Amino acid sequence: MTDETVFDQYPLDQWKNPDHRIMDRFSLVGKKGFVTGGAGGLGRNTAAAWAEAGADVAIVDLPRTRDTLEPLAAELSARYDVNIVPLYCDVSDRSQVEALKTSLIDAIGTVDIAFINAGVNVPGDDADEPYEVWQKTIDINLTGAYMTAQMAQHIMREHHHGGSLIFTSSLSGHNANFIGGGPSPVAAYGATKAGIYEYARYLAAALAPYGIRSNAVSPGYVWSGIFDGRITPEGHDLMIAPVPMHRFGTNEEIASTVLFLASDASSYITGTNIQVDGGYSVY
Ligand code: NAD
After folding, report:
1. 177 lines ligand 1 (CB under 6 A)
2. Domain boundaries, the chain
3. Does the interface predicted TM-score (ipTM) exceed 0.90?
4. Which residue has its alpha carbon closest to ligand 1 atom 7?
5. 3-state class of 97 per DSSP?
6. Is domain 25-276 given the CATH code 3.40.50.720 in the classification?
């Protein structure tokens, strides 16, 4: 490459091309992807966002979510005229993740984008937590993220195209979140979410030569459905007290961030984390 061609790769004013539209960078038309934890609040809203943007999406969750996942897939397919398929997998089970790889290729052909999002906060996850609580949290949140992300990036490399991995970390991976005078019970949970972020960063470095980006999103308190019926209005007010924006986030506020990270609008972003937490992490 001469110096002239090296510099030619950096167009200065793409907007001057009459056919150029910057909003096209947010499109996912022609992309294929999957979302784990797809029956949950963040997962199904991201699947909907990706579908609206034109992607075919496999929504992946535990077999016990079948009654949610089947009608969800049918509704999204009809609404957005793309291929949305429900697939079942316990992400902490190695053989099920191996089987998921085959099912994904059969159902949607390949994987360009993957939202590695399945996660749990097991009761009893405090300073005195039993070994079983710790291990279950690590198995699902961290080992599950490793296995599903590795399966996804292997598909991307075997099919000789790039892609985007987006991991769900958490506010709790950065702060010992504080509710009403003490830390919330997120000891192992926070450890897994910090680990997920660092794993995403490592993959960003290792997979850049293959055109694969890897990033994390860290939700703060999001009204995803998991708090419905579990906290009182007083509990709600206590939780949002340290949040500068003084409210929960919504599922769509996470989905739009994940859409950005999946799309070419973020084509020069890898190895980073986006806090979507109303400003909680500034303290
Ligand atoms: P959710 O409970 O609605 O969704 C989680 C989904 O993961 C569920 O559908 C569940 O069935 C699935 N899941 C659990 N174990 C699984 C397994 N072994 N294999 C496959 N799927 C499994 O919760 P959500 O709020 O949508 O959370 C999604 C992600 O966001 C989680 O990783 C969670 O830790 C993270 N997060 C949520 C918040 C919040 O405030 N809602 C904040 C920070 C991070």
Report:
1. no
2. 25-276
3. yes
4. 37
5. helix
6. yes
